[in-house]
Amino acid sequence: MIFPSYDDNCGWFETLGSITDYPPMQQDSNFDMVVIGGGFTGLAAVRRYAENNPSHSVLLIEALKVGQGVSGRNSGFVIDLPHKRELELGDKCYLNKVMELNRVAIDYLEAQVNTYDINCQWSRVGKYQAAVGNRGIEFLAYYKSLLNNVAEEYEDFTGDCLENIFGTTYYQEAVYTPGGALMQPAALVRGLVDNMPVNVTVSERSPVIGINKRAEGFTIRTSYCTLHCGKVILATNAFTKELGFMKNRILPVMTFASWTRPLTATEMEQFGGQLDWGITPADHGGTTLRVTQDRRILIRNGYRYAFDYNTPPQLLPKLKKQHRRAYEERYPGLAHIPFTHTWGGASSLSGNFETYFGKLDDNLYSAGCDQSVGASRGTISGMMLADYASGIKHELLDNIVEVSGKPSRLPPEAILRLVVPLRMQMQKFRSRSEI
Ligand SMILES: Cc1cc2nc3c(=O)[nH]c(=O)nc-3n(C[C@H](O)[C@H](O)[C@H](O)COP(=O)(O)OP(=O)(O)OC[C@H]3O[C@@H](n4cnc5c(N)ncnc54)[C@H](O)[C@@H]3O)c2cc1C
User: Fold this and answer.
1) Residue limits of the FAD dependent oxidoreductase domain (predicted)?
2) Does the pLDDT at position 390 exceed 80?
3) Which atom of ligand 1 is nearest to the CA of 374?
4) What is the mean pLDDT of residues 11-35?
5) How large is the ipTM?
């Protein structure tokens, strides 16, 4: 059984400064609800369940510290639009449901940021999807046709406009969609865990090593104690299969990021662009680029089939070099600015690109395979799992059930280890002009 482990590479987490400590629970205890996993899904589930049921005792249990998992390691886009596969395959009614769900999640996160004054660079600036070469431009044309199908608002940018915003002539075209938000992910999830309702207990650094069903509920074992509870929400993303659920249906995939130190005032002048924007690549095998409010430039690209959920140390220098190349091609005038951090994180995909949502057993709920757009999809899944577990019924819950599916059964591990890296290499080769 593999548990999450933390390296100290993640820039978002490592630059947080001092954070609250929620020590591991040491004593055997009883709870009405235990939520396992403190990412976007688990944090939304625990808050919502506790609010729905103020007289219930609720435990959030996390293997690491909240923010060290992938919810604190991502690129910080909170996206309202369906991911590419959904846009391609879904009919208008289906896509409107996905967008409504994502937008409810964004509003929910924003309300907490405002209510608790969470200092996480939250801004409702939307995002750009940008193309480098002809391949990217073709992808953008297709993307625009998909947005037209669902009557979604967008703006097309070409030429000088792009340089004025991005500080580089590297991109030929960009499509701006206004609906999403950007944030500092580790700061956001720390802010969320620090402002839980009074009936929530938080136990960090507490990997769950087993879940057993009993006539009267569940026992949950950690290295320190045994917990008894009536209901469980499993919000463990790629690790869900390690706990014995959704086996052979979850594909753990890592992607990687690097960022610079904050640019100085002189370097900002050299840069010549604006702060606080984010680009996702027109060709999804390409590079994500962000410039943060605190003047760092972030590059994300590269994928790995993460059967071990980890970044092998020997891989990091290679990834850093790949990120460096992408950075220097975009900002040759800023080539002297070093990267301070390079990190990766494991997300869950499914073979057929389906997400899942619902009951895994009586009183055991889970959601996952969010196809790497988990800031919004994980949040809404957590909220809806909590409502489901509370017996609250409404249209939004029906809608998330409707837009979720069943991840297909994957081939045996030995075949995956051969085939998935090969497919990733092929994708990387095809997308090379956009990396
Ligand atoms: C580099 C990178 C960039 C990304 N960029 C974006 C982006 O810009 N926007 C976006 O929406 N998505 C992005 N993603 C994906 C996004 O981060 C995930 O989809 C999202 O964080 C999933 O949230 P979650 O709560 O479902 O899972 P997680 O964040 O993985 O949370 C699961 C938690 O469960 C804990 N856990 C696991 N096993 C156990 C156990 N046995 N006991 C106790 N706890 C356990 C883990 O430690 C973890 O904290 C990116 C991912 C990466 C790696």
Assistant:
1) 32-387
2) yes
3) 19
4) 97
5) 0.99
Distance 346 CA to ligand 1 centre (A): 7
Which residue's CA is minimally distant from atom 2 of ligand 1?
Answer: 74
Q: Is the CB of 179 under 6 A from ligand 1?
A: no
For ligand 1, atom 9: residue with the closest CA:
77
Superfamily of 11-72+187-249+352-408 according to CATH: FAD/NAD(P)-binding domain (3.50.50.60)
Measured in angstroms, how far is the CA atom of residue 251 from the centroid of ligand 1?
Answer: 13
Cα distance between residue 425 and residue 18, in whole Å:
40
Strand order in the sheet with 297-305: 155-158, 173-177, 127-131, 277-281, 288-291, 297-305, 251-260, 339-349
Distances (CA, A) of 158 to 134, 163, 282: 14, 9, 14
**Domain boundaries of the chain, sorted by first residue:** 11-72+187-249+352-408
For residues 327 and 333, the answer to whether their CB atoms sit within 8 Å is no
Q: Tell me, in angstroms, the distance from the centre of ligand 1 to residue 114's CA.
A: 23
